[in-house]
């Protein structure tokens, strides 16, 4: 117990450095034999989350090697999620199931920032720390142990605005195609993009913001993009907030070789 307490003390993050430290080594980490880590991601299909899965598996492998755990003693990691980022109910059901398995930690990227509060409260009651990945939740801070992800407003949203404005000569109309409106990462990226343009690019205007469909009768991403291109014949730029929306914008622009629209995607 003393050794564990000492290691935890060494791993404390100085207040002024919180959220700015990358852990790239397992040195000094301690976990009980046979521990289970449960990861619930936004979707299982995109390249981004496939990369996250690969990194998680590598980290667990490195940790087992470092601690000398093999066989039944090895730390395990399950990684699950809905097939797409509209699967709010599916993700909540997965999270409910995961919590019944009593993992030592849950890593979660919420499809819907308002959907998981009951599960976070249950995790807290059971003493299971929750680490948020990529996209947070609307809840009390004491329900979340830590956050690991991009600064979505500045590094994704505002930076995209700067780059796109430079590409179009800092003048003209631009549009946004974003992933699900329920997601905290989507919300922050759109807000960061809009705020940067409003504050620092007076000759650029955001004429349209659309989101991935959330209901069966909603327009598809491609239909929304086509409608924007038709409504704004002088459109100069497009910002897409993730892989799926970037691919949608590019697929539509490929059909309009007569248009000169600059595009930036996350």
Briefly say what this structure is.
The chain is elongated and about 60 Å long.
Summary tags:
about 270 residues, alpha/beta, about 15% strand, five-stranded parallel beta sheet, about 40% helix, single chain
Description:
The protein has helices at residues 2-10, 47-67, 88-100, 117-125, 152-167, 184-200, 221-231, 243-253; strands at residues 36-40, 76-80, 105-108, 130-133, 146-148, 172-178, 204-211, 235-240, 262-265. By secondary structure, it is of the alpha/beta class.
What oligomeric state do these chains adopt? single chain
Outline the biggest β-sheet. 5 strands, parallel
Radius of gyration: 21 Å
Proportion of β residues? 15-25%
Helix-and-strand structural type: alpha/beta
What is the H-and-E element order?
HEHEHEHEEHEHEHEHE
Morphology call: elongated
Low-confidence segments: 1-14, 17-22
Q: How would you write the strand order of the largest sheet?
A: 2-1-3-4-5
Number of strands: 9
Q: Residue-averaged pLDDT, rounded? A: 87
- Helix count equals 8
Approximate helicity band = 40-55%
Distance between the termini: 44 Å
